[in-house]
Specification:
This protein is mainly alpha-helical. Among the domains are: 2-148, no CATH class; 159-244, no CATH class. Helices cover 43% and strands 5% of the residues. It has ten helices and four strands. The strands form two sheets. A two-stranded antiparallel ribbon has the order 1-2. A two-stranded antiparallel ribbon has the order 3-4. Helix 1 (19-45) runs antiparallel to helix 2 and helix 2 crosses helix 4. It starts with a strand and ends in an 88-residue tail after the last helix.
């Protein structure tokens, strides 16, 4: 297994391609290249009587380069690290950081492969055996390696180990799984999947070993007398349930059409209205104010009404050019005094 850190800081464990798998993929590509070479020779033989020896030699060298270098470079660039042989075996060429193979890397691998594969095959054989990732010289210079992309299907987990055992339901609700590593969980899962294939002695020894590793990272400890398989099944079942709940909660995002509308902007205060001077009410001269009663004529034998107070006449209208009279502060409710 090879540990790769992606651009999102996620650690992945990618299986490195085995040497027999790479050798078989190379054999498939060599057969395809040989077929292309035979077709090219047939085409060249038809031109022998019309071309001289120099032209024929140039055509043969160009055809060899196209079959050995262009073939692998074009395939790996277009398919991001695959040739027909690698497709058949489920292999892929990737960068040392797990990124897809680029054109420059594919070209370097093909050019170096022209020497170490087609000219001196023992060089590629020795380099692949000596490298921990099975790299040949072309992979070392290009910064790539070959990984096993297609893995065999894992054995299905038995329904007995897919749920929390009933006696452990109450205890499982208080499990603390934040310190449980993926490697330890994968080891426990692999043990439960292969439980039926193991011998009784291997089940017991391996079960206690993995259960102790899990108990060192999980709290609280299980009830006394809990068998290791039941303990591991409970821990993994709770872990799957919490992972599923966390994924569902993270994905519960309202689409834009169902999202609540944004709050309205705060109301802006209206600009202050300047105070307008209000002139006093005017009464035309010679008219009696509405509050004063009109005099009634007296009848014979009745005393005459008392004399009325002198009429109040309105002040004269101000001249058009005269400035308006300014009200005093608080004289007109609802209007602010002028500045």
């Amino acid at each position: 297994m090879s540990e790769v850190v992606t651009g999102e800081a996620v650690v992945l464990e990618l299986p490195v391609a085995t040497f027999p798998g790479r050798l078989l993929a190379l054999a498939i590509d060599v057969v395809a290249q040989a077929a292309l070479g035979i077709l090219a020779l047939i085409a060249i033989s038809s031109m022998l009587d019309r071309l001289n020896g120099d032209y024929i030699a140039a055509i043969v060298v160009s055809t060899e380069l196209a079959i050995t270098v262009v073939y692998a470079t074009a395939w790996e660039t277009m398919t991001r690290g695959k040739t027909p042989g690698k497709m058949a075996l489920g292999l892929r060429v990737v960068g040392d950081d797990g990124s897809p193979e680029r054109f420059r890397q594919a070209l370097v691998r093909s050019l170096v492969g022209l020497i170490e594969i087609y000219s001196f095959p023992p060089i590629a054989l020795i380099a692949s055996i000596a490298s921990a990732k099975g790299k040949r010289l072309g992979d070392i210079f290009a910064g790539t390696y070959v990984l096993q992309e297609r893995m065999p299907a894992r054995a299905a987990l038995s329904p007995v180990f897919a749920v929390v055992p009933p006696p452990l339901l109450g205890w499982a609700q208080s499990l603390q799984l934040s310190a449980l590593s993926d490697q330890t969980a994968d080891a426990a899962s692999s043990y439960l999947r292969r439980f039926a294939e193991l011998s009784p002695a291997a089940r017991e020894s391996l079960g206690f070993q993995i259960a102790n590793a899990v108990a060192a990272e999980v709290s609280p400890p299980p009830p006394a007398g809990t068998p290791p398989p039941a303990y591991l099944a409970a821990v993994l079942a709770v872990r799957r349930q919490r992972d599923a709940a966390g994924t569902a909660a993270a994905g519960a995002v309202l689409p834009p059409q169902f999202a609540p509308p944004p709050p309205p902007p705060p109301p802006q205060s209206a600009p202050a209205i300047p105070a307008v001077p209000v002139p006093p009410p005017l009464v035309p001269p010679g008219l009696v104010p509405p509050a004063a009663p009109l005099p009634q004529p007296s009848e014979p034998g009745q005393p005459s009404p008392p004399a009325q107070a002198p009429l109040q006449t309105a002040p004269p209208l101000p001249a058009p050019d005269a400035p308006p009279t300014q009200p005093t502060a608080g004289a007109a409710p609802g209007f602010a005094p002028p500045a």
